Amino acid sequence: MIKTCLVAVDVRHPKAKREYTYLVPEDIASSINIGDLVCVPFNNIKVTGVVTELFDFIEKTTDYELKAVISKEAISLPMELVDLSKLLAEYYGTPIVDFLKLMLPPKVSSKTESVYSVCSTDKVISSRAFNQKRVLEYLKNVETATVHDISENLKMPIASVRSALTALTEKGVIKRDYRVVRRRPMVITTNNICEHINLTIEQQNALTTIIKNFNDSKRTTLIYGVTGSGKTEVYIRAIENVLKAGKKVIMLVPEISLTPQMLSIFRSRFPGKTAVLHSKLSQGERFDEWQRIYSGEALVVLGARSAIFAPIKDLGMIIIDEEHESSYKNGEHPYYDARTVAEFRAKKQNASLVLGSATPSVESFYKAAKQEYSLAKLTKRVSGRSLPKLEIIDMREELKSGNRHIFSRKLLSGMKETLEKHKQIILFLNRRGHSTFVICRDCGFVLKCKYCDIALTYHFEDKSGKCHYCGYSIKAPDICPKCKSRNIRYFGAGTEKVEQEVKRFFPKCRTIRIDSDSTSRKGSLEKMLLNFKRGGAQILIGTQTVAKGLNFPDVALVGIISADTALNMPDFRSGERTFQLITQVAGRSGRGDTPGMVYVQTYTPESFAIRAACNFDISGFYQEELKIRREALYPPFCHMLNIVFKSRYEDLIKKEAEEVRQILYQKYNNDIEIYGPVPAPRSKIKDNYRYNILLKSKQIQTLVNICNHMQILNNNRKVDMSWDMEPLDLL
DNA sequence: CACCACTTCCTA
DNA sequence: AGGAAGTGGTGT
């Protein structure tokens, strides 16, 4: 009997990224299974791939001769994960290997890479070979480089850097070496805190709901629990129950490195059984953790977005903490959403799903309201602590009465009072740097990035204008580059400015500033947070990182410097984001014995998102938001697909995007609404123009069909085209 | 029309 | 990745 199989090969080139049929040689025919990793001949090289299908015959007669599998590797993926990949590949209109790769250990997908260097300079290069000359010049400067280094730095298409390299190598001007990617061993620091607390009645009820759903219906449970209501303890008890039933658990958190507390709690409650997966692990660390999961040693996987692909066979439960967080959506290809993957995966492996948040996403709230999810509420903080008091401060009134500072009078006196009581303060502002733009008062010139269509942010520390999108930086000018005026002013406050102002009003006060400028060094964020917790500073000034599940008992006052920043983003989720942000930031206050006070400064106090957040009117907010979404046709009342075009040539984008629009219009017009092509809100980044076509449809299947159609349309396109299913933002 | 530098296509 | 086939410019 002749056996054949389909193999999804791991090659970089988009057009070759498919499944191919291979013959199965007799010596492995009896042992080969779906999910096995195999080595196959591909053109004239050998590549690894995953077996996705097996046949007991030659599937169909072909006009080419089948090649045979060379060998089988030790690793194989559970069949359920291969099935899941097929489902996801179809849903997102993406080659199946892109998902299989997320499930495999890093060693398999990393290979040796070719490194080129100059070895002889006395050979003559034809005067017509411009590319060869450019490449040679570049190599002389940097000494060694890979194909991808060169194509990125010289902005050449991969195929033409490559042919130049081949030509140069043949002439003996440069030589090729191989470099192996090295891995480092894993280092774990553990400090155990293990407290078994008695559950409150609300916690007990939530746990009962989760367990009931786990035992029979496998329905999804949404835990809506106010900040500080003890969701983590409920998760842990639920996990204990799942483990007792002989099943395993995946728990997703927004970014594990931000919550070392969570990790130490898990390590102490499930000693030796917890594996961690997140983006900051080294390749070696990731490999080790993967092996611990694969071998069955780890029963609980705690991790960020990509941990949803952990190689677990007997999965009983998936928990997604801070369910509303946008970091669960992958911002690049493949544009998967870990929440959607979790839903698919739970269904496939007959596991139950638990979502938890103090500010559930509008989509999840809607599903709970429609009884699709079971809803469990935790309305009280543990140990009888009260929720903080929030007060809106109308900054227009402050201006009218002559206060032009970034702090309102109330916030200022609140700060003074809190400092006198030796309690701590958090000031929140979602912008780093000093000033958000630099403008000439005389001619209106705004300092912009050379490569992006973005205003430069002024940074006081090195007196520079920086682009927060590409990193471009110049010395801030004293005179206007356009009209030579000296009347240059800095507008829009960032965290640096807030810190300066604090120092001005309270010269003796110690401050810590947390943003990506001050925490660029590895581990410095953790140190700064610990320092603040121990009282090393009275005031913490920070961007969104301080908004997340941190716990500082001595914080009595929180100031939101500008609640409008998130609100004014050109995005249909801006209201939801603002509501979530205020609620989450406010939740940092009054975690100890001190009742908390929160001042919310805004120029739009009438905004319902701000008012609802300040009144803890969660159902009021969702009702209003759902009403708006229903009227304007936004999720959860429709599905969306954003098609993104990127290119250095704007006219080319316009032409090709218009072509795609025409095709979509002709084929799918009955089922979809088409918006665009229009320039994206961030219309140019790193010298690449960006255009969007946004599609809305009530039928998800239509959008799935379009995704798969896009794969075909993507062939032979000169501009970079990608498609983002259910995008979180359109920037 | 031979020769070349470079691009595009294709992989089972 | 790397070989084959295709494109288009140049020199005699």
Low-confidence stretches: 180-192
**Tell me, what is the CATH class of the largest domain?**
Alpha Beta
Number of domains in the coordinates? 5
Helix proportion: 25-40%
Q: Give me the count of strands.
A: 30
Overview of the molecule:
It is a single chain. This protein has 731 residues and is α/β, with parallel strands linked by helices. The chain folds into five domains: 4-76, GIY-YIG endonuclease; 111-181, Arc Repressor Mutant, subunit A; 201-383, Rossmann fold, CATH 3.40.50; 389-434 and 493-629, P-loop containing nucleotide triphosphate hydrolases (Rossmann fold, 3-Layer(aba) Sandwich), CATH 3.40.50; 639-725, Alpha-Beta Plaits (2-Layer Sandwich). It is 34% helix and 24% strand. It is built from 23 helices and 30 strands. Strands 11-12-10-13-14-9-15 form a seven-stranded parallel sheet, with helices on both faces. A six-stranded parallel sheet has the order 16-26-25-17-24-23, with helices on both faces. A five-stranded antiparallel sheet has the order 2-1-4-3-5. The longest helix is centred in the last third of the chain and has 19 residues, at 650-668. The two termini are 55 Å apart. The model is unreliable at 180-192 (pLDDT under 50). It binds a DNA duplex (12 and 12 nucleotides) through residues 4, 6-7, 9, 11-13, 15-16, 18-23, 40-45, 47, 62, 64-67, 114, 126, 128-132, 147, 157, 159-160, 162-164, 166-167, 716.
